[in-house]
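Extended Data, panel c. Modelled sequence:
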Amino acid sequence: MSQDQPFADPSSLGLWGFALTTIVLSLHNAGIISTAGLTLAYAFFWGGAAQVFAGWMDFRRGNMLGGTAFSTYGLFWIGLAMAFVLNSWDPKAFPMSGGENGAWFALWGVVTLIYMVGAYMAKARVLASVLALLTVTFWVLSAAFFTGSAAITKAGGWIGLITGLDALYLGAALLVNWVAKRPALPA
């Protein structure tokens, strides 16, 4: 790290905050596990705050793609967790309808597609694959919300699980490459 670069690359932190939260929620969506307060808390702090923190560090480093994407997905997790908290607190005052959730997830898919194009243009191929999978995950889950189909939700869970594992790999590759001071793993 140089004098004019105040932060190390925060990408592993952001990717792992995204990956682990996505994996656990996807395991739930796939029907493999049930989720409870721990997943909700991690959505606020690991999936949410850690990614926002990584995004702000990336902005400081001059990385607009990383800064915007990490901040965006961190705020996604915080917003989703807050929606679940409010809905469980008072479902009548804070309902979560399939149509509203479907619309939000469809739009998240559009935003993610834009990030995927940016990653591809930056020649960040593994990141582009994470974002391509995430785009599909959002759109499949959007269809699940619109239709109320448990089968489509499970499909979205399995795709989300692959997405999370891809992000977990990328975070590991970036960390290992940094420690090795050479490209030891494709990133």
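The chain has a mean pLDDT of 95. This feature is highlighted in the accompanying rendering.
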